[in-house]
Amino acid sequence: MYIDSHCHINFPELAARMPEILAKMAENQVTHALCVSVDLPDFPQVLALARQYPHIYASVGVHPDYEDTPEPSVEQLVQLADDPKIIAIGETGLDYFRLEGDLEWQRERFRTHIKASRLTRKPLIIHTRSASEDTIRIMREEGAGTEAGGVAGVMHCFTESLEVARAAIEMGFYISFSGIVTFKSAKDLQAVALELPLERILIETDSPYLAPVPFRGRMNEPGFVAHVGEYIAKLKGVSVEQVAEQTTANFRTLFNVPA
Ligand SMILES: [Zn+2]
Ligand SMILES: [Zn+2]
């Protein structure tokens, strides 16, 4: 049994195919998926999906790539997170790859999410791209980690170095691998996955993006997370069952959702 720790099934191309998506999840033994918010206008839809389907959890947050969108306040995030199906704050973080110029607003928005995570005691879903130094620095400054009184979270769709992964793990974070890890070109990332203990790893699709091999280039969906799990099992030389069980247990521990 797998859990997809990060997907965007509220995006129209997936939301229109919900029955099919749930069937594919069942077929691949994917019991649950976490539908991650990217902005406030879409949040009601995300929450509605989580309320409608027992297999779907959700988060609340505003993605760092969304520039022209209502800015969340700490109070607003805390209030919107007050629902049993909202199990995380995010996705949040920094992205210096997609956007350029003065990105102080991204860092401020990231700090707002960390404050909301500390207040709600719900873990963070962190997106970081070409910004790992500032990401780790702000996580430390705002006390995101368990050692600083935070509740930690997950570094999602991880593509950074082993050093960055270890810095995050030291703060109590988990590292989540997407279909990228299955790509032939991802040798460095595969080396990172090989080094990290299975006890700190989550798996995700980030669907509709980033379909894993053998579906690369097609529209991704939560059922395909099984292929990420299978790849990690092969990479680490352990059984598929072990990866499925451990990543599922990790998800349940981090997000505080009993089986
Ligand atoms: Zn992301
Ligand atoms: Zn995402």
From TrEMBL:
Keywords: Exonuclease, Hydrolase, Metal-binding, Nuclease. Transmembrane segments: none annotated. SUPFAM superfamilies: Metallo-dependent hydrolases (SSF51556). It comes from the Bacteria. PROSITE patterns: TATD_1 (PS01137), TATD_2 (PS01090), TATD_3 (PS01091). GO terms for cellular component: cytosol. Belongs to the metallo-dependent hydrolases superfamily. TatD-type hydrolase family. This is YchF/TatD family DNA exonuclease. A divalent metal cation 2 binds at H127, H156. GO terms for molecular function: DNA nuclease activity; exonuclease activity; metal ion binding. It comes from Duganella margarita. It holds the Pfam family TatD_DNase. A divalent metal cation 1 binds at H6, H8, E91, D206. The keyword Transit peptide does not apply. The keyword Protein transport does not apply.
